[in-house]
Amino acid sequence: MAWFLYFIGAAWIAIGSCFILYTSQTRSAAKTLLSKPHPKVLAAIPFAAGLLFIMTAATASHPWIIRLFGVLGLIKGAFIFINPNNLHNKILDWYLTALSDQAHRFLGIITMILGAALLSWIL
Predict the structure, then answer these.
(1) 123 has a pLDDT exceeding 80
(2) What's the number of domains the chain is made of?
(3) pTM for the complete prediction?
């Protein structure tokens, strides 16, 4: 099951570098990907990723942080599924339209660091 951690680590590095280098194009691609599906269908992705993080935590040298990522994924999936007061749509709109390019680049740097750290924690 370590393949999942390798995949997520590489994906985080790729997505983070895209947000740093091609901010406006990546933002528009994210807008089209995240606005089309129904939020309840979209909630399955972080929920399934959270379950996979929890299941693969034993293959990491720091399993507690991998389990933390899993619990956060489960919480995010449940939050998107429940969507109290249409809050998910407001947060998504803020993230995709109101956030500045510098903030997107900063989040891309954080995503790349997390991806590299995840790859280094795999046994």
Answers:
(1) no
(2) 1
(3) 0.90
